[in-house]
Amino acid sequence: MSRLTPASLPPSCDELPSMSSTLGAGRAGWVAAVDLGATSGRVMLGQVGPDRLALDLVHRFPNNPVRTADGLCWNILELYRNVLLGLRIAFDREPSISSIAIDSWAVDYALLRGDRMISTPHHYRDEARVAGVDLVHGIVSPEELYAASGLQFLPFNTIYQLAVDQRDGVIDEHTSLLMIPDLIAFWLTGEQRVEQTNASTTGLLDVATGDWSRTLIDKLGLPESLFPPIVPPGSVIGGLRSSVAVEIGAPESVQVVAVGSHDTASAVVGVPLADHGAAYLSSGTWSLIGVELDEPVLSEASRAVNFTNEGGVDGRIRYLHNVMGLWLLSESVRTWERDGHEIDLTSLIADATAVTGTIPLFDTNHDSLLPPGDMPTRIAALCRATGQPVPSTPAVVVRSILESLAAAYADAITTAEELAGVSVDTVNIVGGGSQNPLLCQLTADYTGRIVEAGPVEATAIGNVLIQARAAGLLTGTLEELRRLVADTHPPLRYQPRSPGA
């Protein structure tokens, strides 16, 4: 989608007043952010200082999973090749880069024996991995899991995937686990560490201590040697291997830093949250919507509605709910293109905006929508099963997707308010969805709250900010870092419309 311009905004959307983003007194420096998403990756240069926050995309590349005899897997070697290529371009452009950090999607991991990767990371959409749910729940109940980790139930959580590997004899006392960003960091530095925010998505992190849950690990019979030391965001993992330094044209003194390596943790750092009355919505392949808390919410009511307590930067809790997200739209587009249709997404969203009449709504988190494949047919089946009209054109399918997402966001915000005892008056949308004016307006309408949209690159911004603070280029709390985001990347504002408007 092209970047939204003021002239293209709907009548109820206005741009917030521009704030100063000029260079001022103070030292600015350069860092490199590796941001790996479920559909694409990018390497970005960040220039940061007390009144400076600028990003430059130097390399973007696709992330295409591969189906093998072992199942659906990530093409991790191709991703790493592109990371190195992007870093080489970055250092060619700016030799004074002081550090590198990696963020990615959560849950998935590689297994190593010593320094050698022994299994290609499986994709969380690999249907065979859900067999681990019964294996784990036969030993530890869902209630006990939630009390220990605070993590929502998702059938592809790391804990369930590990149970399948354990059943298949892949894991022994010589095996270690690294999440995707930690694997890339290991290949860059030779140091095996697991960053805390991503570890919190495994289901094996003790939500009270922020360390591995020895109780769960022992009950499941997993070797303790499987779990490397945990490091918090802002920690230095190590300098570059000499071979890597030569390959990317960088000094070995360049440090690899742990940031919020779960991409949502970095995205939340990059959300210009104005106050405690704001919710965040990180909108990409998945939609992650919630509030930032100081303490987890571990009630049975919270578990029953599948809210999660994931680790955030500076010890914060990301109390949120997963909604399927723009995967529904992108997979629909892929289906139409496979059928020979040419799809222009900007035009398609404009057509969806013009749709009138009753729009069918469906459960965006229905299990049938998780695997790859013909998304419009599955959406039609859900609408038919609930007695609603079946979307008849691509424009109606898109409108149905976006309205269903907005309705799910409204439900999640109401639930978060009730369970966490907070009041939400603003929704900050970041990521790809912030560039979709129809989704932003519908979110404002369904939630009845002001929506502030942007920045689109919040994840890379959060990555860069924590690196800059680790390097001493910035100081201050998350709130102070977010003020810099608001000053340099002012969001667009959408006002809720009255019903029928």
UniProtKB/TrEMBL annotation:
Catalytic activity, EC: 2.7.1.5
SUPFAM superfamilies per the UniProt record, alphabetical: Actin-like ATPase domain (SSF53067)
Superkingdom, taxonomy of origin: Bacteria
UniProt KW keywords: ATP-binding, Carbohydrate metabolism, Kinase, Nucleotide-binding, Rhamnose metabolism, Transferase, Xylose metabolism
Gene Ontology molecular function terms on file: ATP binding; rhamnulokinase activity
Domain Carbohydrate kinase FGGY N-terminal: 140-270
InterPro entries per record: ATPase_NBD, FGGY_C, FGGY_Carb_Kinase, FGGY_N, Rhamnulokinase
Domain Carbohydrate kinase FGGY C-terminal: 279-471
GO biological process: D-xylose metabolic process; rhamnose catabolic process
Xref: Pfam families: FGGY_C, FGGY_N
Protein family according to the UniProt entry: Belongs to the FGGY kinase family.
Name recorded for this polypeptide: Rhamnulokinase
Organism: Microlunatus phosphovorus (strain ATCC 700054 / DSM 10555 / JCM 9379 / NBRC 101784 / NCIMB 13414 / VKM Ac-1990 / NM-1)
Taxonomic lineage from the root: Bacteria, Bacillati, Actinomycetota, Actinomycetes, Propionibacteriales
